[in-house]
Specification:
Immunoglobulin-like; 434 residues; 5-stranded antiparallel β-sheet
């Protein structure tokens, strides 16, 4: 059991949850109010016109619909990621390049015209989290603490929490450790707790902060104590919960020879790139970050688009085979592909027998290099828009791709909005998540 004031809960939300949504490029999984209003309006329109169906509500049908919905949303995110705030045209996109992606990856987040696009970065230290590892105990031994209700105080991110739990007569060390680590992790306060195995059937509790980097005042990310707790004390010392094995560190690196540090391994560089540090560079070694040449950026975007389409087709085919009652989604995706088949084939995107797309980079580059041939590339935008439209359609009503029996049409002139009916079709009824 955990207890925290409302202000502490809000502070924890702001420090932990919102940080995960802080990439400079807006998260494609988040939505503006206007976007949610558009979805609601679409549901209202559908509920006015849709006939009444008797749907298949078996477990296979539920899994099929939910899988289609999730993959349709992933398809939309993948296609949408190819556009930017400065242009919706795939041909105008700028793509970051790193000459050593094992050490540093980068994503271009600048505008249409950014002055500085070339950087040399060396990394001497990665940002790391605080890790506590307690004392090792024999798993099957009875815990050496009397039965009763225990508690301890945990301070993290300027918030204090009290954890309470019970020890019963006959509990083993491992039983209590498992309950305790599960309690801490499920509290979602920015700390991950686990039981690590040692030698000769022994274990220890391991605590690691989700955040990285040092505090400005040099203090630890989290502290644990039961000196002044409300219930019985003794568990902190018994399990060694306050034993620090690794203190948090900042990332240390140079950019074009100038020294810098950061709390996280992911940061924005000169409002141009979102950089992710993954490793340490060798002495006197730099990783060069720049933009890919225009033609190389084009082939990257086109291959990414084809890959997103192929992934959706492959998974949809697998789900359809397992469900075995409806291949409507495969027919619709094939219809989209056939609509653009000739145009895509002429620029090097060749349709395969299984419905997937194979990109011929040589043909694509030849077309892109020809001023007159560039007009043929406009089909890419039309194809991408069709995929986004279809993904929206599938996300809104995945149940229409399952087996359905028409019961009755709406009475003419008696249309009325019933937006909550589509919760069944959108998957919310099955997953209990809206």
């Amino acid at each position: 059991m955990t207890r925290a004031s409302v202000s502490n809960i809000y502070t924890n939300f702001m420090l932990n949850y919102t940080q995960s949504l802080r990439p400079s490029k807006k998260s494609l999984s988040s939505h503006e109010k206007s976007e949610l209003k558009e979805v609601y309006d679409a549901i209202v329109r559908q509920s006015k016109d849709s006939p009444l169906y008797m749907i298949d509500r078996t477990g296979k049908s539920q899994r099929y619909a939910l899988n289609l919905k999730e993959d349709a949303q992933e398809l939309k995110k993948a296609v949408t990621s190819l556009t930017s705030s400065y242009s919706d045209n795939l041909l105008d996109q700028k793509v970051a390049s790193s000459d050593n992606e094992d050490i540093i990856t980068a994503e271009y987040i600048g505008g249409a015209e950014s002055k500085n696009t070339s950087f040399d970065i060396s990394v001497s230290k990665l940002a790391s989290s605080q890790i506590n590892i307690g004392r090792f105990f024999a798993n099957n031994d009875t815990i050496g603490l009397p039965a009763g209700t225990y508690s301890f105080d945990l301070g993290i991110n300027n918030s204090d929490y009290e954890f309470q739990f019970s020890i019963h007569a006959g509990d083993t060390n491992r039983n209590v450790a498992d309950r305790l680590t599960s309690l801490i992790t499920r509290s979602n306060i920015g700390l991950n707790a686990s039981v690590m195995d040692g030698e000769r059937n022994t274990s220890a509790i391991r605590l690691e902060s989700n955040s990285t980097g040092e505090n400005a005042d040099g203090s630890l990310t989290f502290k644990i104590s039961d000196d002044a707790t409300s219930m019985k004390s003794g568990t902190v010392t018994y399990f060694g919960l306050n034993e620090v094995a690794h203190e948090p560190t900042n990332a240390e690196f140079t950019v074009n020879g100038d020294r810098h540090s950061a709390y996280s391994n992911t940061f924005v560089l000169d409002k141009t790139y979102q950089v992710n540090l993954k490793g340490i560079t060798a002495e006197d070694e730099n990783v060069h970050i720049d933009l890919k040449p225009n033609l190389e950026a084009l082939t990257y975007s086109v291959n990414h688009l084809a890959g997103a389409y192929n992934d959706f087709i492959q998974r949809a085919a697998e789900y359809t085979e397992m469900y075995g009652r409806s291949n409507k989604i495969m027919k619709e995706m094939n219809h989209i592909a056939m609509r653009y088949n000739r145009s895509l084939d002429s620029i090097g995107l060749n349709m395969q027998k299984d419905g997937s797309i194979m990109v011929n980079d040589n043909t694509l580059l030849q077309i892109a290099s020809d001023e007159e041939g560039k007009n043929d590339l406009s089909v890419l935008g039309d194809f991408a828009n069709s995929l986004i439209h279809k993904s929206n359609e599938v996300s809104l009503d995945p149940m229409k791709y399952t087996e359905q029996k028409l019961v009755t049409y709406r009475k003419p002139g008696a249309y009325f909005a019933n937006p909550y009916m589509t919760s069944m079709y959108s998957g919310m009824l099955f997953s209990s998540v809206c």
